[in-house]
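*** Fold description ***
***
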Amino acid sequence: MYTPTRRSIISGVDRAANTVIFAIGPIFILLAIGLLGMATLTYFTVVFPYFYKWDDDYIWTKVYYYIGLIFSIYLVVCIFFHYYMAVRTKPGGVLNAGTAETESDDPTLQGLFLELEEYAEFPKTCKKCHLPKPERAHHCSVCKKCVLRFDHHCPWIANCWDYWMPRPYMALSFLLAVAIGIALGGMCSWHYYLVLTSQTTVEFYNNQYARRSAKQKGEVYANPYDLGYLNNLRQFFNVGHNYSIYTILLPIPVLPPGNGKVWEKSAMHYTTVNNDISDDTD
């Protein structure tokens, strides 16, 4: 008689949860689009006419009206464009090819090994998909592959796979704005903190553990990817070198810096590495 172990039960629950998350992605996207569309419709039919009133007798009211209209349309275009790009842009797998072959004679896999060997003597290998694991990559249990810089990967944008007013309305629009503001405001603040400190969500928890371990040993841990607040922002938005800073305000696609597999380290990191090497040679 077969008796399931605790580990097999947990593994089964994880597989079931991953299957649900994988399948529910399109529903989340439709829900997000529905909320955005509802908020947009309510804004232009209720909120906008309330704050921007047309008056044929005064030219300045017309100018104010058109400025508000153009700015409102600009914001709506930016919101839908950036959400569309977030959904359509793949987060980036370890292999550039569409399939994840693991044969040793695969030229794509060999190229990846050679690329990573330029930066590390022994490239890391993922224990789950058994492919080379670039720095800052993390294995996704839903789509069963490693994803480069894991944070651009969640059910709300579902990119594990390929895919193709009266007063009540006024009250509803503000309630909806407050609800969305509370839900997304905290998430936005959290992720801006991660951007400013150059961490992904997974790295944040790993760094917390590394800091506690270092403190117990009387040492100080420094995030090797933290280049300072300003440089972290420039690197994340890729402005200042390839793109001008004003591109942040435009609804245009901006390519990320580098290849996603190797990342610039801080000067403190190199100093620490050099000190460790010199200590070993003494």
About this structure: The longest strand covers residues 138-140. Residues 97-107, 270-282 have pLDDT under 50 and may be disordered.
